[in-house]
Structure formats: C-alpha cells, structure tokens
Amino acid sequence: MREAMKEFLPVLKNTKLFSGVGEEEIGSMLSCLGARLRTYKKGEYVLRQGERLEEIVLLACGRALIQKEDYWGNRSILGEIGVGEIFGEAYVAPESGALLNDVVALEDSAVFFFDAKRVITTCSSACRFHSMVVRNLFYAVSEKNRSLVQKLDHISRRTTREKLISYLSEEAKRQNRADISIPFNRQQLADYLSVDRSAMSNELCRMRDEGLLKFERNRFWLRAN
Question: Cys staple from 81: which of 18, 60, 64, 105, with CB 3.0 to 4.6 Å?
C-alpha cells in the first residue's frame, strides 16, 4: 500500500493541504500523519451518515458528492468534492458527534485518510514541514466555510429563478468567463439548490427563451442584458 501511496505524491504536492511541501517531504510525512489509502468504485459510499470520524479525508483522484437523504428518500446535495479537496474535518473534534451526511463516489476514486490528532499535533521527530500542513489545514477550512456561505446565499433566494441566477453568476465570476461548465447534472443541480427538478428545467427554458442564457448538458452560456 505504501507503494500505491507514492503514486499520488505529485497529486498531494498540488493540494492545498500540502502547499509548499515537496514530494520527498510528503512521502516521509505519510507515516507521521497515519495515512491510509482506500479506493472506491462509482456509486460506493466513502462515508455514511451516522459514522464517527477521527480522520481528515482527502480525495486523491475521482469525484464525490456530499449529500443527505431524509426518511422518504428525498436527496439534498451540499456540494461536490474535487481532486485534492479535504472533507470530513468538521466532525473530527471530540464533541462533533456522528456524520450528518453521506459522501458518495461519482466515479472510481482514491481517498487518503489522515489521523486528525497526528495532523494537528507536531510529531516527535519535529519535521519542519508539519507546521506548514497545520497552517494549510486552517486556510483550507476557512475557504470551505466561505463556500458554505455562498451556498446558503444561493438557496436563501425566494424563487427558483433567483437561485439559478445566484449560482450561475457566482460560477461565472469564479471561472472568469461567460461560458461555464458546472459539476452537476440537472438532478444534482436541483438537489444542490433545493428546488424541484421539473420546475427548475422549466425556468431554465424560460430564461433561454428570454435570451438570458443558453445551455447544453452541464455547459451554460450567460448573456448580459
């Protein structure tokens, strides 16, 4: 398994968690951080609601969704996880309780698990890059909190159109272009914005007919008034 981990050193080097740390140093830190690597097939659960987590989790390849289903099977999507992103960190504190959401692989994926206590505690060998990882973790958590605030802004809008405009406008700003790709299909986008899929599709068609945008699958072309 250690050899399999080494294959992902170039990926880890380009993550926010290991920003500023070289591949050789990351390789020597894996044991220090209690790293484990697991693979998942498309559709498999990486984490399940109700589990307890004591590790910081990082997606090394593939894609995953953070989602939640209610008693009747209605699904809400909280966000997508891309390569290099961490997740689960909100549940590693002693009093955090069990997971409130599921994490499901959207495609075949590889995932690193790092012992949270080892990550935030300087190791006995006092490797000089450990403090950088702790700092990077703080920055990554701060950025994720900002993304959560953005999502809350989208779904707090009163109408389906307002939610769509809020989300698509934010993506256009983030991607710095009017023709954008989003990580969701129609059902996933509806789940993310907490709207009915049919109502959302009808609204998109009205917006297209009014000349506000064009779309094809997960591609959108936004037009200024």
Answer: 64
CB contact burial 14-34 (16+ within 10 A = b; e otherwise): ebbbbeebeeebbeebbebbe
Residue 81 neighbours by CB under 8 Å, 6+ apart: 59, 63, 64, 65, 66, 87, 103
pTM: 0.79
Q: What is the pLDDT of residues 24-71, one digit of tens each?
A: 889 888 888 999 999 999 999 999 999 999 999 999 999 999 998 887
64, 68, 66: which is closest to 82 by C-alpha?
64
Could you tell me the domains of the chain? Answer: 2-144 (2.60.120.10), 157-222 (1.10.10.10)
